[in-house]
Amino acid sequence: MPEDNKLHRTDILLIAESMGRARVIEDIKEPRLEREVEIRSLWEHLMTSVKPPFSFTVIDFNGFLNGIKEMYERLEVAFRFGDRVIWKKIWHERPHECRDKGDWGFVEKRSRELGVSDVKDLEIVPWESIIDDFIKELQKKAGLKEDNGIKKKVEVMASFMNPLGEREDIKLDDLLRRPAWKNILRDARVWLHEEEVPYAFVLEIVEPKMSVECDPEEPIKVTIKIDARDYPYPVKVTVTIEKAKRTSHTNPDSSQSQEVPKGASRTLVFEIKAPSEPGEYVIRVRAVGKGDPKEVSDASEISLIVRGEVPEEIEIPACRLKELLESDFSDIELVEVTVDKSIELDGIIQFISAREIATKFSKAELNKMLLKRRVSDEKVAILRLSGEFPDLDSVRRAFGPLLKWGEQIEEIKLSIEISNLRGLDDVKKAADIFERYDVKTSILKLKVYRRVGGPQP
Question: Are residues 43 and 167 in the same domain?
């Protein structure tokens, strides 16, 4: 019997697995609900099963229900009663927190509204199996609505944290056009943004429905519908392609505009060309009322991935190079090494002199070097060096005699440029040399390549 007289999430999954309703997922090594199962069936199976691992003899229903509550708290399951589904709570204002979790009080409230007399009558279902129905119900709430003669524009919004740790509040339909939108939606908080309007138009992206993945400069067709029958001004619609990062600028050749007459409903087709450089982009659609003193506008976006390798420059200490090799970068190029500790100077010279690296040497630049050497009790020789070294021989001639005075070198900053040291195998050789000669703090400038789109290696 559990010490706290409660079952937990893993216990419920083990019961479901023994009933053939869950299976072990190899990559996470734990059961996962795969098919629907009634709470009553799980409870009765536990009460009648004497097979391992179920050896509990004293447990009440509330203790059993605790495990189901833990599953729901993670929003990995929903509940079905007839043709109605209970999953995420819908907020009616922008929430302060943007990471959602299941609230059992919400399940109890919705169960009462649906006429559920016994929680055992609820069916547990995997969240993935109900998400399409959940979205359809949400989309019915969006658009221009009228309540007691008051017109409202209602938008279904989703709030979540992106991989950069930034909060995003975007339309649900825009989220559905992002890669991995299902997992984002599971953790996001969903809410309704309502605004009273005397008049408005409706913007809808007809195609594409999902995120776009294409080759560089491949044509992309975007179909937009504008319903301005209740709007007394023309509507200008502009489609642009921008880098996904907000700091990036719009590509000047990727902007197109069309106009919808006042009081009309039109379907507009835009033919745009994907950028020439691989990467992650956003197709932004913006509609603005022309001449409207209220400046009514609307916007949506589509995620765009242009297939290929995307380079990024980074700097890390030498001790982290092997760690970097274990990441999912498709390629790595070592561009420059900067040493600012005399204790690592010998290791760096050994590095650029190594057979595997010597042919990649480009040049070295000594920004500064200050050596203080005691000549006698009363005299100190001060040597300042700087300059460029175009080949290995000049580096050896300059630094060879100084290496024996390493502890007396008070300041040093030596930058070594490498050319064409690209490829995971070559970079691994460099990491091995750094490790062999105990080079740890010297700074490496690298160009890493990340594959976007297409089959991943």
Answer: no
